[in-house]
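Student: I would love a firmer grasp of how sequence relates to backbone shape in proteins. I am handing you a single protein, as its sequence and its fold in token form. I am told such tokens are a discrete way to write the fold. I hope you can help me see how the letters and the tokens relate. Take your time, and here it is.
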Amino acid sequence: MTTSERPLTGQSDALPAVADIVAELAQAGLEVTADPADRAAYSSDASLFRLVPAAIVFPRGADDVAAVLAVSRRLGVPVTSRGAGTSIAGNAIGTGIVLDFSRHMTAVLDLDPAAQTAWVEPGCVHATLQAAARVHGLRFGPDPSTHTRCTIGGMIGNNACGPRALGYGRTGANLLALTVMLVDGTIVDLDETNPAALFPRLHALVADHLGVIRTHLGTFSRQVSGYGLEALLPENGFDVRRAFAGSEGTWGIVLAAKMQLVQEPAHTAAVVLGYPDMVVAAHDAPLLSDFPVAACEGLDSRMLDRVVAAKGAEAVPALPAGAGWLVVELTGDDEAVLAGQTQRLIAEARAGDAAVLDAGAAAEVWAIRADGAGLVSRTPDGRDAHAGWEDSAVPVEHLGDYLRDLMDLLDEHGLWGIPYGHFGDGCLHMRVDFPLDAERGTSVMRDFLVAATRLVARYGGSVSGEHGDGRARSELLPLLYPPEVMDLFRAVKELFDPRHLLGPGVIVDPDPLDASIRLAQLPARAPLSAELAFAYPGDAEGFASAVHRCTGVGKCRADSAATGGTMCPSFQATRDEKHSTRGRARVLQEMVSGDLLATAWDSPAVAEALDLCLSCKACGSECPTGTDMATYKAEVLHQSYRGRLRPRSHYSLGFLPQLARAVTPLASLVNRVARLPGIGTVGKRLAGIDSRRTIPVFAPTTFRSWWSHRDTARAGTAARSRADRLGEVVLFADTWSNHFAPRILSAAVAVLEHAGVTVRIVEQTVCCGLPLISTGQLDAARTNLGETVAALEATGDVPIVGVEPSCLATLRDDAQKLLGGEAAARVGSRVQTLAQFLLSVGAELPDLRGVSATVQPHCHQSAVLGTAADRELLSRAGATARFLGGCCGLAGNFGVEEGHYETSVAVAEVALLPALRDVRGDGADPELSVVLADGYSCRTQIADLSDARGVSLAELLAWGHGLDTPRP
């Protein structure tokens, strides 16, 4: 039996075979996939749950949705609507057909600035709507922490809020009209007009239960649990469109929505109030009702500890003293009045310390808060912490007491969690270390969730404050609501969907909260064979634990390039879930412990999912959970090809450093031969290189040759007189710069000596071995890297400075994982970029005023070493620098290999190529305009795909100092 013919996993065993479902969908002309890698990628969202779908459909419009529903009705197959898959409650997964609206139905259909409204398709990303509105000084009010990737359709499904619900309300309150397709294919338009004539049975049902609804529903602002039937009360105009908000895709399918926009506030102020702990902070939250507060978030100091551990202390702005904080955003039309309100808040708060943040610091704090779900997903000792009780809410006046009792309840159950969230309106987020991989782990979770539900009910609260009930909490609703409310929920559901085809298992007839849990339901599997090549610190079971780091928050789906990030370039280029970090993690999870794929390193589905991973390392630093796909890919390649014949490109590119050393004596001849008609084409085919790529030109004189013959007596009087004033460095003469761009290393020597630094290099030829790592040849890489670390360790304790960021990142990062030991750690700690070193010693900088630099940072530098020093150095030197987000697309060997060219170019089109076109078209003085790219692969991509020429920072600084080097 093939994978595609296996029975469905999860909700129902009575569904038709996968092949039959796919055949029907394909016959209807739909864009559909049941590829094992795709099914694995869509088997989960941001929740604990795993339900493998039969098929995934990517609708282009209403006709496609109608066709899917026709198949659903005919075959009895359930349908689940999905946006970005950021649902934490498990309401974006199902065993039937998953409708992914995020690929095609993504448009802002119309935006009316005067009316302050926008029509959008359900797959429109929140950030896309915000960007369109911002042009007119407008915004969409609610903004969940996933706003960079969540879709408006998903927000309607959950009635999402975000931190600024205090100022703007929930999504439902900002919903003006809906176009909805019901399960029978009928399309209805819902707006402010009373739709009683459209839904007479619903109208009568509500009329018969007015007392029940008024008593139990809509009792406070964050009561999201169950259906929002309070919107159907006569006093609320029988508002079906707003009742749809929070129905979690179980009543109908949204085709389009008209959203209310609002003016951006004229002025904002960010105040941070510091408290001894989060309970004390929560007790102060009710105070805010007397102030013009748009947002108030609780932030635990342990979240910031995680950021510092991952990115260093400089990643966290200075905050008031305390172990817990309220981060408060106030807004107003009058700046002076707002300043007065801000000071009054500080005076009246019971905080031990307080501070008003500037715009930059406020943005950093809000970014940390947005990553909250990932930051609290691991305990300090490396165990997983899970969703499940991550969204409870109580009236804000009870928040302090509720949080105190909740923390006591955690202790009683022997559990751990970090509280944070929307304290201003009583909504609490938390991840709990349920031992789901233990024998009674799900029982521990169930016992706690039942007890916690009884606790929140005592405070008049809700098990869901914005994430929806989904599979995580629907079973708990009878502990919140009396039977007459539950019966009413069922009656309403069956008016809309009598056969329970839409989102089954949610709210009505719920799946058990401990069924289909990803870590607990999976069958026991034989461990993967072979000894692991990398170390996986903090992951108890090595690779198998590491791939489960991904909690599905989906930050890898965001347009990170727009905000200066990189993750995930292959998803940005393809818009394909399996080519996101999260999608790949789901596929690897199936390989490790699922039943959809074989437990084998060389699984075809795994190879398919990893093929377009650029190994950019961005996920290792930008993913809040630290999912490190570059390492996982290298490990899989290493294990898959161990003792087997590899692809040609693994040999030609993986061993290119060794090849470069071998042909150096014949460099001129090799270059001439490579240019002969047909020779280059044949050579590229034999090497597994795309024919559209250029063959690198070997320098006639390597840097090492230049260095060995250099007349130090003529190195410059100024340099000699200032030598040793700022100490000495070891310049790492990497393979790429040594053989293909020696001018850059020479420029670095000139800059360092001009600063008064003595430059040394390692006498023997050394290489970081990155090509061997990226092609998964880890035994050879370990040997190579071990020799390099030993040679560098022998140079003492002086800084190691380099000009090729990928090599420096390898010494800082990969060496620790491959080699371990104190020597690798010491060498890694000495590694610095040129900018970092020059700033650290207070070197004199050239006058670069008038220079306009478009900067393409190397992905590995951004991920491992950071670009803060480069930004500061260029700013101090007077240059105007525009740092691009996104990857260049070449990424070492990736963009050179056959089969990757189109993706490589598509990645470059995300940010790099548009920026280069802007440089040509902005009328800047070409004599003062430079494209700055320290990475050899970045400069190669620029040369291959444009008429621009990339230069390094070393060259720019040497030119600025007027040193004897070629002008960049």
About this structure: The longest helix spans residues 441-458. The first strand starts at residue 32 and ends at 33. The mean pLDDT is 92. The radius of gyration is 29 Å.
